[in-house]
Amino acid sequence: MTGPVDLAAVLSRIDRPWQPRTVAVLNDYDVRVVRTHGEFTRHSHPETDEVFLVLSGSLTIRMDDGDVALGPGQLYVVPRGTPHQPFSPDGAEVLLVEPSATVNTGDSPGELTAERRLA
Amino acid sequence: MTGPVDLAAVLSRIDRPWQPRTVAVLNDYDVRVVRTHGEFTRHSHPETDEVFLVLSGSLTIRMDDGDVALGPGQLYVVPRGTPHQPFSPDGAEVLLVEPSATVNTGDSPGELTAERRLA
Q1: 3-state secondary structure chain B
Q2: Distance (Å, rounded) from C-alpha A57 to C-alpha B42?
């Protein structure tokens, strides 16, 4: 991961939704890309904020005080400890920024829990 | 900065190149957008890596061991302490991820040094 990374090339190699790939490591943080489709696990990250940036498609982040609808080029920060449920009926490509230790399903592990995987 | 942020809307309000705007705060990190045009100050950040993601246009990062050429959707991490000079003769829109304390010109302050500014 020392050269430039083409996000579209990495995304094209991902065959399943909700399985992030780490495309950059910045100190102890990761930049990840993920393909979303359908409904993800409702969860929170007690120890960190989480950045979502939609690259293509559309993503809704369901939160207790309302839905956040994101399209291409739109970004949102889910505050630490805040329950959220990504929902993407039509699919999206999303960039995430979070500490490298962050697990995708946070405090609600299950079948969608993914191991950290470098692109 | 609690709602969704539209990167294009923020970028459209930036009237000068090399003046980043912080569009998201993630723990003690910033996500910033910047319009690049021309040649920036050669500098390094002794305390941190720095992520560059080109959103549109083209950006070259001149480094001692060669140039890194980035187009839309391409990302590069400049390692901490590594001299680099962004160069963008045709202009670009770029997303940066770095600690909130990071100053754009790093160890080489000058007329292009920008104060941290929230979008």
Answers
A1: CCCCEEHHHHHHCCCCCCCCEEEEEECCEEEEEEEEEEECCCECCCCCCEEEEEEEECEEEEECCEEEEECCCEEEEECCCCCEEEEEEEEEEEEEEEECCCCCCCCCCCCCCCCCCEC
A2: 37
pLDDT band at B101 (very low <50, low <70, confident <90, very high): very high
Q: Give whole-number Cα distances, A85 to A45, A62, A72, A110, B44, in Å.
A: 12, 5, 19, 14, 39
Q: Which domains does chain B have, with CATH numbers?
A: 7-99 (2.60.120.10)
* ipTM confidence: 0.95
What is the mean pLDDT of the segment spanning B42-70?
Answer: 97
- Under DSSP, is residue A75 helix (H, G, I), strand (E, B) or coil? strand
CA distance B73 to chain A (A): 6
Distance of CA B78 to the CA centre of its chain: 11
User: DSSP secondary structure string, A17-44?
Assistant: TT--EEEEEETTEEEEEEEEEEEPPPB-
For residue B67, the cross-strand partners are B62
Chain B from 22 to 81: CB within 8 A of any A CB = 23-27, 29, 31, 48-51, 53, 55, 68-70, 73-77, 80
